[in-house]
Specification:
single chain; mainly alpha; ABC transporter involved in vitamin B12 uptake, BtuC; 13 helices; about 0% strand
């Protein structure tokens, strides 16, 4: 009798832990099953393809955001970096697809480098450092195109935005390959282990001799490059460069995906698979509401509620650990 109560208590604690760690997977499965059973035309190949294509840029941005949040930081500039990449792309496509893509990626790396120096060297709070580029970056992107929408006339880029391989759009393959690459980078490399250690305790990492500044700078550069990739993908899909809308509010979607996926805002943990599932959950929620004739503004409200619940669950996890 005396052993039963502790065992039940352990079982309940284990159940709560499992739900906190795997809740996003369960939520995606439940929501997917609901739509397959009750939402008209949801199970069609065209609709499922559309959902994957729409979520691909969010996944790409969220991968960089996951690494940044893993260092106990945040990158609010990713949406504006997407806009800058989208603005530069058509300006240099006249020199060829390679030149246009390289310039766009270099711009993303430069933005990330600026954020990384401000955070790692100048030691400005990440939310403040990246907020500056969030505000100024989109303005710069709009200035670069003179406030106009630039049509994309490069056949290679247009084909990339619409082509498929094995029945799956190339942009979805790209997002999947980047997710695998980032997962291996975080889990299998010295850099990934250093990133997690710095996020867990930056002061102790510095005392242990870890290259804190270098890791922070590299992390923000990678976030900038991934945001630029997402900007290129979004431009290819739209067949036009519109910096006023491309990447708009993507920073919030990325943060939601990362937090819901189990990466703590306090750093020291990076869950790549959880991040991908978090992005899929956001897309499924939006699609479910829209297909049931509810406005997208309702999806934004639901997204805000999900962030609050996810952060609360993380607080419970830390309280249980302590």
């Amino acid at each position: 009798m005396t052993e039963t109560v502790p065992r039940r208590s352990v079982d309940r604690a284990a159940t709560r832990r499992w739900l906190r760690d795997n809740g996003v997977h369960l939520a995606v499965a439940v929501l997917l099953l609901y739509n397959l059973l009750f939402t008209a035309n949801f199970a069609t190949v065209s609709n499922l393809t559309t959902q994957l294509v729409q979520v691909a840029p969010v996944i790409i941005v969220a991968l960089g955001m996951a690494m940044v949040i893993g260092t106990e930081g945040v990158d609010l500039s990713v949406g504006s970096v997407m806009a800058i990449a989208a603005a530069l792309l058509p300006l240099y496509l006249g020199y060829g697809i390679v030149a246009g893509v390289v310039v766009a990626l270099a711009a993303g790396a430069a933005c990330g480098l600026l954020n990384g120096v401000l955070v790692g060297v100048v030691r400005i709070q990440p939310i403040v450092a990246t907020l500056a580029l969030l505000v100024g970056g989109r303005g710069l992107a709009i200035v670069l195109v003179d406030g106009q929408i630039k049509d994309i006339r490069n056949d290679t880029l247009l084909e990339f935005g619409s082509a498929k391989a094995l029945g799956i759009p190339l942009v979805v393959w790209l997002a999947a390959l980047l997710a695998v690459a980032v997962g291996l980078l975080v889990r299998r490399t010295t850099y990934g282990r250093q990133l997690v250690a710095i996020g867990d305790n930056r002061s102790a990492s510095a005392l242990a001799g870890l290259p804190v500044r270098r890791v922070l700078i590299v992390t923000y550069v990678l976030s900038g490059v991934l945001a630029a990739v997402a900007g290129i993908v979004a431009t290819a899909r739209l067949t036009a460069s519109d910096p006023s809308s491309i990447g708009n509010l993507y920073e919030l979607s990325a943060i939601t995906a990362v937090v819901v996926g189990g990466t703590a805002l306090t750093g020291g943990r990076v869950r790549i698979l959880g991040t991908v599932m978090g992005a899929l959950l956001i897309q499924l929620i939006r699609a479910t509401l829209i297909k049931n004739d509810l406005p997208d503004s309702i999806a934004q409200i639901v997204q805000a509620a999900i962030i609050v619940l996810a952060v609360y669950a993380q607080r419970e996890r830390r309280a249980g650990a302590s």
